[in-house]
Amino acid sequence: MTVTVYHNPSCGTSRSVLELVRNAGIEPEVVLYLKTPPSRKQLEDTLLHDKLGARDLLRAKEKLCAELGLDKPDVTDSQILDAIAQHPALLNRPVVVTPKGAKACRPATLVLDLLP
InterPro entries attached here (predicted)? Predict the structure, then answer.
C-alpha cells in the first residue's frame, strides 16, 4: 500500500500521524511540504482521492489565510489551490493520501480510516 504523508516535523499532530502510519507496519513516502511544496496539479490530484474540497486542505488558522482573504466564503477552490501552491504554509497538515482516500488528519486518529 502506497501512503504519502505531507509532513511538517515541527507539528505534533503531523508527528503523531507519521507514528500511527509506521505502527501499522507501513513506511510512507514522507513529503516535507515546506521544503518540497506540492504543485497545483498534485493538490488537485489529492482532492480527487476523496470527497475533499480545497477548504479541507486549507490551514485556516494560518495568519496568511486571513491576510490573503482566503477565509471569505466567496473564495473559490481554484483560488485556494493557487494560494496553497504559492504558500505551502497554508496546507492543513498533515495531509495523508492512500488508496483508500485522502484526508487532512486533524485529529491524528483520522488517519486510521485510511489504513488497512
Answer: Arsenate_reductase (IPR006659), Arsenate_reductase-like (IPR006660), Thioredoxin-like_sf (IPR036249)
CA distance 115 to 82: 29
- Cα dihedral sign, 89-99-116-23: negative
Q: Which three cell numbers stand for residue 73?
A: 466564503
Contact 93, 7 (CB under 8 A): yes
**Three cell numbers written together for 9:** 516535523
In three-state secondary structure terms, 1 is: coil
Q: Report residue 71 CA to chain centroid gap.
A: 17
Q: For the segment 8-38, what is each residue's pLDDT rounded down to a tens digit?
A: 999 999 999 999 999 999 999 999 999 999 9
The pTM (predicted TM-score) of the whole model is 0.92
Structural domains of the chain, with CATH: 4-114 (3.40.30.10)
H or E element that contains 4: strand 4-7
14 three-class SS: helix
Q: Tell the residue number behind the cell numbers 486549507, with chain if given.
A: 58
